[in-house]
Fold this protein.
Amino acid sequence: MDFALPEELRALQRTVRSFAQREIAPIAAELDREPRFPWPSLRAMGALGLLGLTTPEADGGAGLGSLAAAVLLEEIAAADASHATIMSVTSGLPQALLVRHATPAQRARWLPRLASGEWIGAFCLSEPHAGSDAAAIRTRARRVADGFELSGTKAWVTGGGEAHLYLVLAATDAGAGARGISAFVVERDQAGISFGAPEAKLGQHAAITTEVRLDACFVPLEQRLGTEGQGLVMALQALDGARIGIAAQSVGIGRAAFDAALAYADERQAFGVSVREFQGVGFPLADMATRLEAARLLTLRAAWLMDRGRRVTKEASMAKLFASEAAAFVTDAALQVFGGYGYSREYPVERYFRDARVTRIYEGTSEIQRVVIGRQLYRDRDRAEAPGREAGA
Amino acid sequence: MTIVTIVKQVPEAEARVRVQGGALDLAGATFVLDGMDEYGVEQALRLREAGEASEIVAVGYGPRETEQALRTALAMGADRAVLLEASGLDDPLTVALALAEVVREAGADLVLVGGKQADWDSAALGPALAEALGWPHVDWATAFTLSGQAFESVHEIDDGSETLRGSLPLVVTTQQGLNEPRYPTLPNIMKANRKPLDVRPAATEESRSAARSYAVVERERRRVVLEGDASSAASELVRRLRDEAKVLG
């Protein structure tokens, strides 16, 4: 058992940390105050290969594994959560789905542009009335000559209006529930797709979020991804990887808050000593460090298992659940260490606190993660007890 | 034409450095490719992109860990690397003699090296290397171009800038302002691990000088934070500069 990151990966981490701290961290506060989709820094990320981490090199990506993606996403998130969200979505959902399910023609058409960051990809599953209950989506894909006509409204789309490519889940067979949903690729300039105004959100302001409206939007047959009726199955499978991404992002945001609190508790004097001398400050720092470490280990292990071709539904949900809850705890405790200054916009901690909050909600709420884990516990047990299986098989 | 770019590994500028028993404790510090050397690597890449160089060799002198800095240079785009492995306190003259051998062996006509190193700050390695090679040296370049064997180099002086022209071979010391070094791309960092890196022990017997010992000189920084609003803080600053520091009349 070896817990050290390979030297090759540490070299990637050093470069990305340096890039993130020099190019992204300094603009994070301003992007929070004056939200805009951060195109210049996204372009720079694309040039390094950060927007197509796990897409194969043959398709224009960096060709890295999930472990590397998790390590590097933490670095971006520690500089700015909004960049990490955009990165996680474009790389983890549309690209991951295309890599797995696209035809050669579809790969050639979309992957190089997405992997280089020339295009940003968005993911459209949730709807105003269907979040956790994904099978209840109402967006319809009606079969017409040479393709489909999509109608419906998608909610909470990261990069809405800014992204060039939208991976849309829509019902092709309304009576078939989860097995009646298919995946489609819609490009931004196609007729019939439009965008709502950016949502006013608690945090992650630069990760612009909008509604995506589809009004009799025609997509030719060659823009359907994968087999008809398999869309939700494909999407849920991709969400395993995406959840590891959110776990890594949570660790990154938590780390930024923890580092700030660690430095502040050392510098800030009260009653003639550094406040870190008081257990009221030292104990929370110890708890923060412990939870972050545990969250990182769960995250990296889930990624490591995924790189070994294992189904990681349970492990990804555990990592996402624990890491997002840890980020909430750590950012809250960090704010407390800062006292009144923590509540002030003069320091970045209140931003970390706001940015972290949504990690307990998106890519499946904490409650849904518990549902997934709970269900998987019995599946794993039943599989282990199934006859004809040798131990370790 | 081959360019040698000298690479040193130094503690990161923001690294926390502790002094323990008169010696530096660098455990826990992150080490990086020296920023001034990085301008040299970048300039070599630009000269090659401009069609003026065919091969770039990154050469380091120092402990085994220097390999990391050399891998960074390889990831940025250098073709191969040589590490002269040495354990520590060698002075710039000794290092220059050893590096000169590698420069000759590579058949290089141009050497780029940081104007000074972020750790020892001696600013001696570049001139010493030029001397060891018997080549001319232009220092503190903020612009550098080649046209065949002819070079043009600019550096800042007190009342403007100075342009120097001449022909290779040449040692150039580099500094901030010369260029904006690129970040290596992730695929290139991976590929850098497969590029040739030749590690050999540094031969130092020729040296005419030796560092006998080093000591850390500690200086406490006197920090004063002036409280209050801008105008009262400004008045207090003026008072202190005039009455205490006596730098204002």
Chain A touches chain B at residues 8, 11-12, 14-16, 18-19, 47-50, 53, 57, 62-64, 72 (CB under 8 Å). The longest strand of chain A covers residues 147-158. The beta strands of chain A are 121-124, 140-144, 147-158, 165-171, 181-187, 193-195, 209-220, 224-225, 269-270, 273-274.
